[in-house]
Amino acid sequence: MKIVADESVDYGIIDALRKNGYEILAIEDLYKGSADEEVLSISLKESSILITEDKDFGELVYRLKKAHIGIILIRLSGLDPEMKKKIVLKSFSENISEMKNSFSVISYNQTRIRK
Q: What is the pLDDT of residues 17-33, one digit of tens each?
């Protein structure tokens, strides 16, 4: 499954996901400076789940009812970069199939998945 990573995602997380076999299209590499709606459109075109650290995607999905393949919001600010990678990798390995067509939030203690 291909995953689109918003510019807000720590590049260490992107590298860790790639090293663990996930195909990542990083917005920072190919479409730097794209607006949130454009990033969401790219993830739809790629039939990919979008990972982000930007809460604005929640507004696009819930208030504006924008279509998506799945949004994963990473809420791990203030944590050591190695801890962030470990938490995200664990959440992906345990939940990635459920995250498709859902809005998921990865936080320190849990991953919430809302269909």
A: 999 999 999 999 999 99
| Tokens 């607006």 belong to residue | 35
Sequence-distant (6+) residues with CB within 8 A of 75 are 53, 105, 106, 107
pTM for this one? Answer: 0.96
13: domain range? 2-114
Q: How far apart are CA 115 and CA 109, in angstroms?
A: 20
d(CA 70, CA 32): 21
Number of domains in the chain: 1
Find out whether 94 and 62 touch, Cβ atoms under 8 Å: no
pLDDT, tens digit (0-9, with 9 covering 90-100), for 81-93:
999 999 999 999 9
Query: Do 27 and 34 touch, CB atoms closer than 8 A?
Result: yes
Instruction: Quote the tokens at residue 111.
Output: 């991953």
The CATH code of the domain that includes 66 is: 3.40.50
Pairing of strands 111-114, 103-107: antiparallel
